[in-house]
Design brief:
The complex is a heterodimer of chains A (241) and B (255).
Chain A lengths: L1 E10 L2 E11 L4 E5 L6 H8 L7 E6 L2 E2 L10 E4 L11 H11 L9 H5 L15 H13 L5 E5 L7 H15 L4 E5 L3 H7 L2 E6 L2 E7 H8 L4 H18 L1
Parallel strand pairs in A: 3-8, 3-9, 6-7, 7-8
Antiparallel strand pairs in A: 1-2, 1-4, 4-5, 9-10
Helix pairs in contact in A: 7-8
Chain B lengths: L1 H13 L2 H19 L3 H30 L1 H8 L5 H31 L3 H26 L4 H29 L6 H9 L2 H12 L7 H11 L2 H27 L4
Helix pairs in contact in B: 1-5, 2-3, 2-5, 3-5, 3-6, 3-7, 3-9, 5-6, 6-7, 6-9, 6-11, 9-11
């Protein structure tokens, strides 16, 4: 569904992505893991066309995404830090996005109801707490039944109740054969939500397989410990060189 | 595009600065006309203020607004919307808001109090000047990620066109005064949108006698229909060229 080939990107002198090649297939759920600054968000922004790669190509449903924007109809995106126009009210924000996407009539308002956002329609965005903003971002991502969902640290900043609600929603949608790309630092969440893991470090993909395989390989029963093993092994290998 | 422009416009109008700007222009215009009994003189004094304030406010307001709406642009970019559409929507909304402020604050009272050719020209020139400086502000905004730097670049544009360029022209005319410079200065004037606007209005106010031989030459050129078309076309080029450059940059920018 999403094919990334030889993708490279640098910001000034820093190489953020170094020739990344990966396939994300429909119906699978990928966990994106990696230390801070490993290029997870940059990869996501490249897929969304917000950051333009220096080299390489991304195809969504077989079509290259450069100079195209129609493909974003099929993507729901929840950013790491949702930033919205200060003066806008929650209700206006949803109205505006709906207004822009009039092609879509089937709406998924489960999360809006779950998070009780419909009860604070008149609150302005700049008065919202970080967690409420995250709720808005999550509701927007799921609003149009997109076949691809990209969630950048979805559970960060949410209260435990909201985290469970969001996870339940993700699991529910996963059963509908959607592609999920979830980046997070909370291993237990990813362990529950994803079947596959992509491990990025310094702009390279070091591991891309199912979580089961990773656990077997390292002999750990928890994703967090398994990943820690990979990271340690890795740093030893670099020291040894 | 109109949909997005509508939301941007709504956001701008909620911001009180644009209303303060309108009120400021209104106060200046009304006081100019009540201070002097000769409406021609009032128009002239008004012109000098407008030529300083209008470019400054247009360019700084647009630059700051562009950076403040970064979140909005980010949000739209994750939706199926063309980047060019977002860019032009921002431009349309900003030039519309600033033009409205100018129309209500200056053009309307001026046309009511002193309806003649020079007032109509001043209205047109002011509107075009607003577009030019909004376009220049977009150029400054997309050139960097740093808000302070972009405002610096915007201010530099303003200084350049209001002060530095004038000095430069004076220097050329002074040092080459032995040569026939009419055509050269005519070209040089076209390179500065503020000068273009000023000359159109000064000629219409019939103050060109004060400008000596060059003034007579200008009157000959700018006074004719061809000259008027030429000067308005130059101002249009001054809007479109920076706008297109900024758009190309924006389409390739990492957000």
């Amino acid at each position: 569904m999403i094919t990334v080939s030889n993708l490279s990107k640098h910001f000034n002198r820093l190489d953020v992505l170094k020739s990344i090649t990966i396939d994300f297939n429909a119906g699978k759920s990928f966990a994106m893991i990696g230390p801070n600054g490993s290029g997870k968000t940059t990869l996501i922004k490249c897929i969304l066309g917000m950051v333009l790669p220096d080299q390489g190509e991304i195809r969504v449903n077989g079509k290259p995404i450069s100079n195209d924007w129609h493909y974003r109809q099929g993507i729901g995106y929840m950013p790491q830090i949702g930033r919205y126009p200060d003066q806008m009210k929650i209700g206006q924000l949803f109205d505006m996005i709906r207004d822009l996407r009039q092609d879509q009539t089937r709406l998924d308002e489960d999360l809006i109801k779950e998070f009780k956002l419909d009860q604070m329609k008149d609150k302005r965005m700049h008065t919202l707490s970080g967690g409420t903003r995250q709720k808005v971002s999550a509701s927007l991502a799921f609003l149009f039944h997109p076949p691809i969902l990209i969630l950048d640290e979805p559970t960060a900043g949410l209260d435990p109740l909201a985290v469970e609600a969001l996870k339940a929603k993700i699991r529910c949608e996963e059963n509908k054969d959607k592609l999920f790309l979830i980046s997070s630092h909370i291993m237990s969440d990813l362990d529950e939500l994803s079947a596959y893991v992509v491990y990025l470090e310094e702009g390279k993909i070091l591991f891309n397989d199912s979580i089961e395989t990773l656990k077997k390989e390292t002999g750990e029963s928890k994703l967090g410990k398994a990943i820690a093993m990979v990271m340690k092994r890795n740093s030893k290998a670099t020291e040894g060189r | 595009m109109i949909k997005i422009a509508k939301y941007v416009l709504y956001d701008i109008l909620r911001n009180r600065i644009i209303i303060l700007y309108t009120l400021f222009l209104l106060v200046v215009t009304l006081s100019m006309f009540s201070l002097d009994s000769d409406p021609g003189k009032s128009t002239l004094s008004l012109l000098n203020i407008i030529l300083l304030v209008l470019p400054l406010v247009s360019i700084i307001f647009t630059t700051i607004h562009f950076f403040n709406s970064y979140e909005f642009i980010e949000l739209l970019l994750s939706q199926p919307v063309n980047r060019k559409t977002i860019f032009f929507a921002e431009f349309v909304a900003l030039s519309l808001a600033l033009s409205l402020a100018y129309l209500i604050g200056v053009a309307l009272p001026m046309l009511v109090l002193n309806y003649n050719g020079s007032s109509i020209y001043m209205t047109l020139a002011g509107l075009l000047l607003t577009f030019v400086f909004v376009a220049l502000a977009f150029g400054a905004s997309v050139s960097t990620r740093d808000k302070a730097k972009a405002i610096g670049v915007a201010l530099l544009f303003w200084f350049y066109f209001t002060l530095i360029y004038d000095g430069f022209i004076l220097y050329i005319i002074y040092s080459f005064s032995d040569y026939p410079l009419e055509k050269v200065t005519l070209t040089l004037v076209s390179l500065n949108p503020i000068d273009l606007a000023r000359i159109i209005i000064l000629l219409k106010l019939d103050l060109s006698a004060l400008m000596g031989y060059t003034g007579a030459f200008y009157k000959n050129f700018f006074g004719s229909n061809l000259g008027i078309i030429y000067s308005f076309l130059s101002l249009a080029v001054w809007t479109l060229a920076p706008l297109m450059l900024a758009m190309r940059r924006f389409v390739r920018k990492d957000i």
